[in-house]
From TrEMBL:
Organism, as annotated: Bacteroides faecichinchillae
Matches recorded under SUPFAM superfamilies: Outer membrane efflux proteins (OEP) (SSF56954)
The protein's name in its UniProt record: Outer membrane protein TolC
Family annotation (InterPro entries): OMP_efflux, TolC-like
Residue spans crossing the bilayer: none
Length: 419
């Protein structure tokens, strides 16, 4: 039983280290791992705080003030009554006041503050989605770059096997006097060049894997294999565009609409209640030269018409911003359509080239075999035969490169259109 458990545990560990990964998994993990994703919560909290602050505008507002003053003259009674000493107001005056204000109607100002806070948060969220969406393109580049390196490493291994076979064949010719040392050296040089190329490809793959590991937040070992993606549906130049940038433009337009509505709030009247409690000298009885408490309560109306002077220009400014936003949206759609068309033509071009790849490989293989036969008969040099062997290898590399380029082009169109 313990042996079974140990075997299963080992299998799970090995599977985690050397398992297969897909493009969709890498994109999803990158979206979850990238540090920028934490800003979603920060935007939500900022919006929550702004809404709470706006709602507190309905709460009673307290104010405390104090003053001490001295004035050159005071109000006095213009008459004098014999036998009566009427003291006037003191020239030095003191007051401490607490005022409570309760908003009854502010013309919709608090409501507009809430709408503006929500609109600003929506714009920030959409900007963040645009930045997060751009990560998919970085993942695509790394993922397909690794796939291409994998195929090149496979072709490199095949070329090494072929060169090893030729080296053994040339060695037998050398023993029989058909080939010389220079022929063996020529094959050996090609073997060394191929090994150097493999080292270069291996280090490039390792670097790409490390970058992909940083994006996804998971360690990808050199033994990790990447699964070739299979597109669920094809994207063409006529496909609809659903990029997050369009949602950003919509959110910014909504924000401008809220700003325009907020202009009407500025010149509306405001009603409220107030209560003032004070202690000072003089009090409400100005003829009484002593400290006394008092209070005043009432209803207050304020109506500021100053904003009407700039209302027309403020609306024009918002309208200009709206037109700029519409222009930016049109430019974005135009450039995106241009990219889709360009990418669509690139995919079609690769697909057309792929039709001849197998035939080119077949012909190159025949030429290489013929060259080997000529070397055996002594009618062709080893150097010329190696050139044909290299051409055959390049033809095979071109085929796998076209396959990866086609896949990458299709997923690039999916990224451009967000299909």
């Amino acid at each position: 039983m313990k042996k079974i458990i140990f075997t299963l545990s080992l299998f799970v560990c090995v599977s985690g280290m050397y398992g297969q990964v897909t493009l969709e998994e890498c994109q999803r993990k990158t979206q979850d791992n990238y540090p920028l994703v934490r800003q979603y919560d920060l935007i939500e909290k900022t919006q929550e705080y702004n809404l709470e602050n706006a709602a507190k505008g309905y709460l009673p507002q307290f104010a405390l003030s104090a003053k001490a003053s001295y004035q050159s003259d005071v109000t006095e009674l213009p008459i004098k009554i014999p036998g009566v000493d009427i003291k006037g107001m003191p020239k030095d005056q003191y007051q401490v006041m607490v005022e409570l204000q309760q908003n009854i109607w502010d013309g919709g100002g608090i409501k507009m503050q809430k709408k503006q806070a929500t609109a600003e948060a929506d714009v920030e969220k959409e900007k963040l989605r645009v930045d997060m969406y751009a990560l998919n393109n970085r993942v695509n580049d790394l993922y397909f770059g690794i796939l291409l390196l994998d195929e090149q490493l496979k072709q490199n291994a095949l070329l090494q096997d072929e060169l090893e076979r030729n080296f053994r064949q040339i060695s037998s010719y050398f023993e029989n006097g058909i080939a010389n040392q220079a022929d063996l050296d020529a094959v050996k040089v090609e073997q060394l060049n191929t090994r150097q190329k493999r080292i270069e490809l291996s280090f490039s793959r390792e670097a790409y894997l490390k970058m992909l590991s940083l994006l996804t937040g998971e360690e990808l070992s050199p033994e990790t294999t990447l699964e070739k993606p299979v597109p669920e549906k094809m994207v063409n130049a006529a496909s609809e565009i659903h990029r997050p940038e369009l949602s950003l433009f919509d959110a910014q337009t909504t924000g401008l609409n809220v700003q325009e509505k907020a202009l009407n709030v500025r010149h509306l009247p405001r009603f409220g209640l107030f209560v003032q409690g004070a202690y000072g000298n003089p009090g409400l009885n100005m003829l009484k030269n002593e400290f006394s408490p008092y209070y005043i309560a009432g209803v207050r109306l304020s109506w500021n018409f100053g904003s009407l002077y700039t209302l027309k220009n403020d609306r024009r400014v918002i309208e200009n911003k709206r037109q700029q936003l519409g222009s930016n949206r049109d430019v974005f759609l135009f450039n995106t359509r241009l990219q889709v068309t360009q990418q669509d033509q690139a995919v079609r071009s690769v697909e057309k080239q792929m039709r001849d790849d197998d035939e080119i490989i077949r012909l190159r293989t025949n030429i290489r075999r013929s060259a080997e036969a000529k070397v055996a008969n002594g009618t062709l040099t080893v150097t010329e035969m190696l050139r044909e062997l290299t051409n055959e290898s390049l033809a095979r590399q071109a085929k796998v490169m076209h396959e990866i380029q086609r896949l990458q082009g299709i997923y690039q169109m999916k990224y451009i259109t967000n299909q």
